[in-house]
Design a protein that fits this description.
Strand content: 25-35%
Largest sheet: 5 strands, antiparallel
Strand order of the largest sheet: 6-7-12-10-11
Number of helices: 8
Structural class: alpha+beta
Radius of gyration: 20 Å
Helix content: 25-40%
Distance between the termini: 25 Å
Length: about 350
């Protein structure tokens, strides 16, 4: 188990912010996670549990303990008679490596979540989603160590109360569990989801009408790479804001003012409006405030053009929020965890 003091988090956040923490602990096994829980539980220092830092904005040094899982492994548990595939993955595995493994082995359901940055443990906390899919639809159970009781527990998916980029891990369970493994339920039957965003258009451009899982995965990768910058080249945390869900009345009001405004029905009473579109309409696409900026191909992404501080990126975030609220009467919330 790694256990360091005065540790730089530069390699643990994709914005490339060189902030430090008082103590850094990394566990590689369930036994080490139990030991980490003992250490954490014996003190009163602030706690931050991180994955790869792809959904994190550090605005200052963290005067507490940062904990990270390095548990690896992708293991097939069972394929039942109905064709359900149960795959147990270490919480430190890279999420897209899991998707690639699934597609290569004929385990279907995760294709639309291709190339989402981050790790397995964070997927269960954040309820990652893209192109009409959410990981909550795939999660069977979560194994973790309860920091309060120091006991190993298994948490069923339904206990997590998943919502749009939400879970109990981000609410009442915040900093309570060290996740060690996540078991996903996939399928041996491929049922592609093609009706979100420009998936069908991208397929048509390739002359593909009925894609294989590998073709769909590649299309998703192509779309994401065309819109989203590589954090190894340009610091960012992917989609910075959540898409707001508004009442049907609010949507109707805006649709009358902005014909052709993109939207996605949620239910009979609510519509989702892309935050990127709202930000672009406010003129922020490609603009900057100092070294902090908005990506020129995707207004949903805030970027570090070099040496930006977390405070400068936060200031840009708040400025954009104010402009969107002033123009549309909608408050957009960050998807990124701001520390």
């Amino acid at each position: 188990m790694k256990d360091f003091t005065n540790y730089s988090l530069l390699n643990h956040n994709t914005f490339g912010i060189d902030a430090a923490c008082h103590r850094f602990i990394e566990y590689e096994t369930t036994k080490e996670a139990c030991r980490a829980a003992e250490i954490i539980g014996s003190g009163n220092a602030p706690l931050l549990i991180v994955g790869s830092g792809s959904n994190l904005l550090l605005t200052k040094d963290f005067n507490g303990t940062v904990v990270h899982s390095a548990i690896k492994g992708i293991h097939l548990i069972n394929i039942n008679k109905q064709g359900d595939v149960f795959l147990r993955c270490g919480s430190g595995e890279t999420w897209d490596d899991v998707v690639a493994h699934c597609v290569s082995n004929g385990y279907y359901g995760a294709e639309n979540l291709s190339l989402i940055p981050g790790e397995v443990g964070a997927s269960a906390v954040q309820n990652i989603g893209a192109y009409g899919s959410e990981v909550a639809c795939l999660i069977e159970s979560i194994e973790a160590v309860d920091i309060q009781s120091k006991q190993q527990v298994v948490i069923a998916c339904e206990e997590c109360h998943y919502g749009y980029r939400q879970s109990r891990f981000k609410g009442e369970w915040h900093n309570r569990f060290l996740i060690t493994h996540v078991t996903y339920r996939l399928s041996t039957t491929f049922q592609p989801k093609l009706d979100y965003g420009n998936i069908r258009t991208a397929l048509a451009e390739k002359g593909i009408e009925t894609p294989t899982a590998q073709q769909l995965r590649q299309i998703i990768i192509n779309i994401r790479e065309a819109k989203l910058p590589n954090p190894k080249v340009l610091g960012n945390a992917g989609s910075f804001f959540m898409n707001p869900v508004v009442s049907i009345e609010k949507y109707s009001e805006l649709a009358a003012r902005y014909p052709g405004m993109p939207h996605y029905p949620i239910d009979a009473s609510h519509e989702k409006i892309p935050a990127g579109w709202l930000i672009e309409q406010c003129g922020w696409k490609g603009r900057s405030l100092g070294p902090a900026g908005v990506h020129n191909r995707q207004a949903l992404v805030l970027v570090n053009h070099g040496q930006a501080t977390g405070q400068e990126i936060l200031h840009l975030c708040e400025t954009i929020q104010n402009d969107v609220e002033a123009k549309f009467g909608i408050h957009i919330n960050p998807e990124v965890n701001i520390i």
